[in-house]
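Input structure tokens:
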């Protein structure tokens, strides 16, 4: 299966604006940052959560707590992913009981990653509320999950793939749409 890049749909400035807007929406909806925990879903959700926390600190004076969540063992497709999956670390530095946990990811697609993330998060406690922030919502949900904060809605075909590229992981900031020949 060949994948070719069709177009860049968000450039570095656009990604910066998305993070800024979502950060403002998070603060506004939650009336500040008290009891907020930003939990980045490994891999690209982690640097996005960090960017959100940094941006929130710029205009609120202090940042919400940041955490990292590895969902590998919670995936419902684990047996099809790899014979020996690589499990990353989960680091949630505070007790999440009674807090507002905001799961952060790059792309919302079927909803299965978010379901796995909620299962993993609940193993650490019982947050008062779980919210979801994503850079891109591309549709095609298989589960009844929606994001509370969306950078951009990008309707796609199932042959298309959205790639969020981040400086921290990929050396560049952009969002591209790719197409498979399947």
């Amino acid at each position: 299966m060949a994948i070719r890049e069709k177009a860049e749909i968000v450039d570095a400035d656009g990604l910066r604006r998305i993070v800024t807007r979502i950060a403002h929406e998070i603060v506004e909806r939650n009336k500040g940052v008290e009891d907020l925990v930003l939990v980045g879903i490994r891999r690209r959700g982690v640097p996005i959560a960090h960017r959100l926390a940094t941006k929130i600190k710029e205009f609120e004076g202090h940042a919400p707590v940041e955490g990292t969540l590895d969902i590998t063992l919670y995936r419902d497709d684990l047996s099809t992913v790899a014979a020996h999956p690589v499990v990353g670390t989960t680091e949630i530095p505070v007790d999440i009981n009674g807090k507002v946990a905001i799961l952060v990811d790059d792309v919302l697609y079927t909803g299965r990653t978010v379901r796995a993330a909620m299962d993993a998060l609940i193993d650490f406690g019982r947050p008062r509320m779980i919210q979801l922030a994503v850079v891109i919502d591309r549709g095609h949900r298989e589960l009844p999950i929606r994001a509370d904060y969306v950078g951009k809605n990008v309707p796609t075909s199932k042959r298309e793939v959205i790639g969020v590229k981040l400086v921290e992981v990929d050396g560049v900031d952009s969002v591209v749409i790719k197409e498979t020949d399947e």
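The domain at 3-77+85-180 is CATH 3.40.50.2020 (Rossmann fold). The first strand starts at residue 3 and ends at 10.
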